[in-house]
Write the structure tokens for this entry.
Amino acid sequence: MANTLVQWLLISTIALFHPFFVSVIEIEHNSKENTAEISIRIFTDDFEKILQKYSSAKIDLNQPNNKLQNGKEMTSYIGKNLQLKINGQLVIAKYIGYEIIKESTWTYFEIEGVKEIKKIDINCSLLYDFEKSQTNIFHVINKGQEKSYKLDINQRTTSFDF
């Protein structure tokens, strides 16, 4: 029992000094609206730091007065670091908005005119310029089927076939 407690405390202490860097990206096909809906979850403090790196404006995602400027910065950064091809065609995602939920920022995008998804190709480098140990987890949902994959700095691309 004491050994287990010591191990737990040691692991907890290490986790405090060595945080993990992970983002979750979900892409879901909405067949009724003919869209692909994208949500990207990134830890707010990491997202602010990387956006600040490329912006001359002060980035504070928790500040409601800055929502328009923050949206522009997010769209620019994500557009450069997340490229998608649906059925072999490069697509551009339209920014919808963002919200802060606990310690994460959820950013929403939409791709219009997607009648079906047979294949989706992903090229992602989100936050690799901030943290080399960054991991991006993808969940793609199409026709009730969910497929997932993990990308990191050494593997930036993947494809999903349906």
In short: Helices lie at 2-17, 44-53, 67-81. The chain has one domain: 20-161. The first strand starts at residue 22 and ends at 30. The mean pLDDT is 90.
